[in-house]
Design brief:
Helix content is about 70%, strand content about 10%. By secondary structure, it is α+β, with helices and mostly antiparallel strands. The strands form 4 sheets. Strands 2-1-4-5-8-9 form a 6-stranded antiparallel sheet. Strands 10-14-15-3-16-17 form a 6-stranded mixed sheet, sandwiched between helices. Strands 11-12-13 form a 3-stranded antiparallel sheet. Helix 13 runs antiparallel to helix 15.
């Protein structure tokens, strides 16, 4: 990596724009970066780091980059850092702008703009820059990938902080481990340690969990086994737990099988006794059943004998009913004919009751003839009925014509009245349209006048406000000028006092044997003493800083006053001298007139629409008036025609209806009489027919009763049974026969007869004996079932425990292996003799590389006297691995680096920093670092050592490498010709560059 150019704007102490040409400085190979304290030497290195990584080292990065902006910069100058460099064969340009607070472009106050970044690459073929990215994240990832280093590594490798490595030499193992861990990124080794520890805890928890489950199964087996021996007194995780549980389970299973065998034998004996008791009980029950059967049969035979007479009567009744079944059809036919005749006779009497007295004795034929005569009279009235219907239609049409005439008269009156007012209506609407058009034109004119008036009013109000602001700014400038003058006077007074007592201040730094900075003498017989109230350098600098702050506040107030005066002049030029109140009244009057004109102009469209609708209404009403006149002429003609037809129809109807109110009424009378006569004739005919059928049915019934053996039809009817009575009688006869057969069958059984001859059976005694045997069997079965369940449960739990032990075996092996590795990696294992953690082991290897690389330069700086070596000895009771010793070739002794003197510590730390840079560079992928910076520490070296150190640094220039020294040492300005000087001024620091 080689730096070419750095451009700064409003960054840190640099108030303006500054440029650093590293190509010119690097031409000499070694260049010096110097300047007074606080001038901004470190800010140049911060700018390089910020350009590459978007942040500065250490605690200086805060406030999201807002504090990177220079306090000396103009409010309108944007803070910017641009770095041009070559890395991995690519020439890049990185530009970064941190967020900054700038004045608003409109109005008062400030606004914050976001940070921005650009990355460009130089295209040698095209001879121009090519944009790559504007994303903060993408640029950061690209730079980090190309350099192969994080920001912390870059600050330690490229910007070598010699002071940090001096502390590194004196630090303990933990402090060295933290620094090396950041540089070499060994967090993944620490992650391996943590992962192993986590795995150990996880596997230990799983082993304990498995042991707990195994013990839980053992307790379940103990509970299932009942009075088994106690379990071994072991806890989860104890060695031998699995074997002890399995051995105890084997004893419990053997005991359970013995108890099961005993219970099985007892159950078999109880089953045999139960079977014998059941057999005896079955025999007794059978004898008791047969005895009951014999007794019941004797009782049923006695009851049959008692009902014998009733049974004979039922048989005789069933015989008569079978004979009456032959007469039943004739009886049914005669009953149907009689019912039909009664209905016909009732209908005939009802029909004759509706007729007049002249038809009382008329037969069916006479009634039919009278009905035909009434029908003929009704047919003669059909023509009159049509005429009557037509007359009703004529009357309806005449009424409709009258309604239409009245409606047309209303239409004509309405149309005539509306058309009479048409001209007046049209003139009014036309006047509304013209008035609205004039108002619209007036509103446009007022709008044109209102806008400049409002602008003048706004300018006048701004003029008044700016006038007040200007007065306040002038008063503030006067106050701040007075305060700055007082601060300047105070500073000059303190400076004069300090100059008066400078001898005492110089005398405070005198040391016997060392030359005086003023006279050069090594003896100091009477050094000046500080008097009371002596002013030192810090007091003078505080007064100077107070004066500078007051003067900056005064200058800022003057700039604000100038801005306010310019704004006031611009506002006064636009507003003029007219008072604000008068301009406001003018604007209000224009606004009121404009509002009124717009309100009247809004009526233009409604007025035009109203005129259009009125014209359409005029045309519609004129057309309606014409149509009404045409309909009136047609109505007169139609009315005359209808009147003539009506007169003819009324004459015809008067003759046809006679004394009736209407032809319809007369026709209704004739229709009713014809219907009554027809119904009476039909009813008389049906009654005669049913009387003849009833006579025939009586004759057939008498003949059927005689042939069936009955004296009269009445006797035959009495013998007939309905279906329910027949079924009931047949059921009684069948039940008698069945019962009689069943009793005879039972009394004929030999076993039943023999049982009846025996003494009564003792069933209760046999049942008690069987119940006792059943209880004994149930108890033995329960005992056997409990023993079997105990055996099954123990077998199941033993199998599960065996499987659990088998499954835990690989887990126990894994736990042993992981615990051994975790202890070894954490440095707590007995196998790790030096108690060195894994991360410390890796860092020790890196430190050994760094020590070897640093020794090459340290031997040259110390003229071959010192060599850095890595030590992995334990420090006290702590852990080993990060010790660093120096070997003194003059004494041959090895000692701790903390025993080096100030100058020795400097070049040792410088050698260590350069060695670390080489190792980190190789770790980052071998990226070549062509530009390095070394910070301070050269003042502690004597001339010879300084020459040797510069020779070592000058050797770094090989292969076109450049080294920048950041130092206050004045002698280096003589030895190093290429210089970059940072000059501190009141308006901000500036850069002065001098090549070789």
């Amino acid at each position: 990596m080689r730096l070419h150019r750095l451009d700064l704007a409003a960054f840190g102490p640099f108030g303006g724009t500054e440029s650093v040409d590293f190509d010119d400085l690097s031409a000499a190979g070694l260049f010096l970066l110097h300047g007074p304290t606080g001038a901004g030497k470190t800010s140049v290195l911060d700018a390089v780091c910020y350009a590459l990584y978007g942040s500065v080292p250490g605690a200086r990065q805060s406030g999201q980059g807002m504090n990177l902006r220079s306090d000396h910069a103009s409010p309108t100058t944007r803070t910017e850092v641009r770095l041009e460099l070559t890395v991995a064969g690519r020439r890049l340009e990185v530009t970064r702008q941190p967020p900054w607070e700038r004045p608003k472009k409109r109005g008062a106050g400030t606004t914050v703009e976001k940070a921005q970044s650009w990355l460009r690459e130089y295209d040698a073929a095209a001879g121009s820059w090519k944009d790559l990215s504007r994303s903060h994240q993408e640029i950061g990832e690209e730079i980090t990938q190309l350099l192969g280093m994080s920001r912390e590594q870059f600050c330690q490798v490229v910007l070598l902080p010699q002071g940090d490595f001096a502390r590194f030499l004196r630090a303990d193992a933990e402090a060295r481990g933290r620094l090396l861990g950041r540089l070499f990124d060994t967090h993944h080794f620490a992650a391996v340690e943590k992962r192993l520890a986590d795995r150990r805890r996880e596997t230990e928890a799983r082993v304990r969990e498995g042991d707990a489950a195994l013990l839980a199964d053992a307790h379940r087996m103990q509970q299932a086994a009942g009075d088994a021996p106690d379990l071994p007194d072991l806890a989860p995780g104890d060695p031998g737990l699995a074997d002890a549980v399995l051995a105890w389970a084997a004893v419990a299973r053997s005991t359970a099988r013995e108890r099961l065998t005993i219970a099985h034998c007892a159950r078999a004996a109880a089953q045999s006794a139960r079977a014998e008791a059941d057999r005896v009980l079955d025999d007794v029950r059978e004898v008791a059943r047969l005895q009951r059967r014999f007794a019941e049969a004797r009782e049923r035979a006695a009851r049959l004998e008692e009902r014998a007479d009733t049974h004979r009567e039922d048989r005789a009744r069933m015989e008569r009913a079978r004979k009456a079944e032959a007469v039943a059809p004739a009886l049914d036919l005669r009953d149907a004919a009689e019912a039909e005749h009664r209905r016909a006779r009732a209908e005939e009497e009802d029909a004759r009751a509706r007729l007049s007295g002249e038809y009382a004795d008329a037969g069916a034929a006479g009634l039919a003839a009278a009905a035909r005569r009434a029908s003929e009279e009704l047919g003669a009235l059909e023509s009159a009925r049509r005429a009557e219907r037509r007359l009703a239609v004529l009357l309806t049409e005449q009424a409709e014509l009258d309604d239409e005439e009245r409606a047309d008269e209303g239409v004509l009156q309405d149309a005539e009245g509306w058309l009479a007012e048409w001209e007046t209506t049209r003139a009014g609407l036309q006047s509304r349209i013209e008035s609205a058009q004039e108002a619209a034109a007036r509103a446009e004119q007022l709008a044109v006048r209102r806008e400049p008036a409002e602008q003048r009013l706004a300018a006048a109000r701004q003029r008044d406000q700016l006038g007040r602001d200007t007065d306040a700014a002038q008063a503030r400038v006067l106050r701040l000028a007075e305060r700055a003058s007082e601060a300047r006077t105070h500073w000059l007074d303190l400076k004069e006092q300090r100059l008066s007592g400078i001898a005492a201040e110089l005398a405070a730094g005198l040391v016997d044997g060392r030359p005086c900075a003023v006279c050069g003498g090594t003896e100091h017989p009477a050094p000046a003493q500080k008097v009371a109230g002596h002013v030192d350098r810090e007091a003078e600098e505080e007064a100077l800083a107070a004066f500078q702050r007051a003067d900056e506040e005064r200058a800022g107030a003057e700039r604000q006053l100038a801005l306010a005066q310019r704004a006031l002049a611009a506002a006064s030029a636009e507003a003029g001298d007219t008072p604000t109140e008068r301009l406001a009244a003018t604007v209000a009057e224009l606004e009121r007139e404009h509002t009124e004109a717009r309100r009247r102009a809004v009526d233009l469209h409604p007025a035009q629409e109203a005129l259009l609708h009125a014209e359409q209404e005029r045309d519609r009403r004129a057309a309606a008036r014409q149509e009404a006149a045409i309909r009136a002429a047609s109505r007169d003609t139609r009315r005359d025609t209808l009147e003539r037809e009506r007169t003819a129809l009324e004459a015809e109807l008067t003759q046809a209806r006679g004394d009736a109110e209407s032809v319809a009424e007369l026709a209704g009378r004739l229709e009713a009489r014809a219907a009554r006569l027809g119904a009476a004739a039909e009813a008389a005919r049906v009654a005669d027919d049913t009387a003849q059928r009833l006579k025939d049915a009586d004759a057939r019934l008498a003949d059927a009763a005689f042939r069936a053996g009955f004296d009269t039809p009445r006797d035959a009817a009495a013998a007939v049974l309905d279906d329910a009575a027949h079924r009931d009688l047949q059921h009684r006869l069948d039940a008698w026969q069945s019962e009689e057969a069943a009793v005879r069958a039972v009394l004929a059984e030999a076993e039943t007869t023999a049982a009846g001859a025996q003494p009564p059976a003792d069933l209760q005694a046999a049942e008690r004996e069987a119940e006792a045997a059943a209880r004994r069997l149930q108890n033995t079965v329960s005992a056997w079932d409990a023993a079997e369940r105990r055996r099954i449960e123990l077998d199941r739990l033993s199998a599960r425990a065996t499987a659990a032990v088998r499954g835990l075996a690989p887990l126990r092996e894994e736990y042993d292996r992981v615990a051994r590795l975790a202890g070894l990696a954490a440095g707590t294992s007995a196998d790790n003799e030096r108690r060195m953690r894994l991360e410390a082991y890796v860092l020790a290897a890196r430190l050994e590389q760094v020590a070897a690389a640093a020794t090459v330069r340290l031997q040259r700086m110390s003229s071959g006297r010192y060599t850095l070596v890595h030590s992995d000895d334990r420090a006290g009771r702590g852990r080993s691995g990060l010790g660093l010793h120096v070997v003194d070739a003059w004494t041959g002794r090895e000692r701790d680096t903390a025993t080096l003197s100030g100058g020795e510590t400097f070049f040792a730390s410088l050698a260590l920093a350069l060695g670390l840079a080489d190792v980190v560079t190789d770790e980052a992928g071998g990226v070549r670092l062509d530009t390095l910076f070394i910070d301070e520490g050269f003042g502690s070296l004597d001339d010879q050592t300084l020459d040797e150190v510069l020779d070592v640094l000058d050797a770094l220039r090989e292969r076109d490498r450049s080294v920048g020294i950041v130092s206050h040492v004045a002698d280096l300005r003589r030895r190093v010709h290429a210089q970059l000087e940072i000059v501190k001024e009141r308006t901000g620091s500036v850069v002065r560059q001098r090549g070789r």
